[in-house]
Specification:
Elements lengths: L9 E4 L6 E4 L11 H12 L23
C-alpha cells in the first residue's frame, strides 16, 4: 500500500464565506467549510441567483431582421 508523501491536509478557500476549508475525505462538506455554507450555495442555485449570461435580446427589442417582419 502506498502512503501519500504529504500527509498535510490541503486547505482551500470556502466558495461561500471565503474562510479556510479542509479539502479531504474527512470533510463531508468539501469544498465548503460547513453545512451552512454548503446549504447557502445550494439555496443560491435553487433561487437562480447563479445564472449564465445569455446573448438573447431584451424583450422590448425586435428580434431578428427587421426587413423580414
Amino acid at each position: 500500500m502506498m502512503t501519500p508523501k504529504n500527509s498535510e491536509p490541503k486547505i482551500v478557500t470556502c466558495p461561500s464565506c471565503g474562510g479556510d476549508s479542509v479539502y479531504a475525505p474527512t470533510n463531508a462538506f468539501r469544498p465548503f467549510c460547513s453545512q451552512r455554507c454548503k446549504n447557502m450555495d445550494l439555496g443560491a442555485w435553487a433561487s437562480e441567483s447563479f445564472r449564465l449570461p445569455t446573448d438573447a435580446p431584451p424583450d422590448d427589442l425586435v428580434f431578428g431582421d427587421a426587413k423580414l417582419q
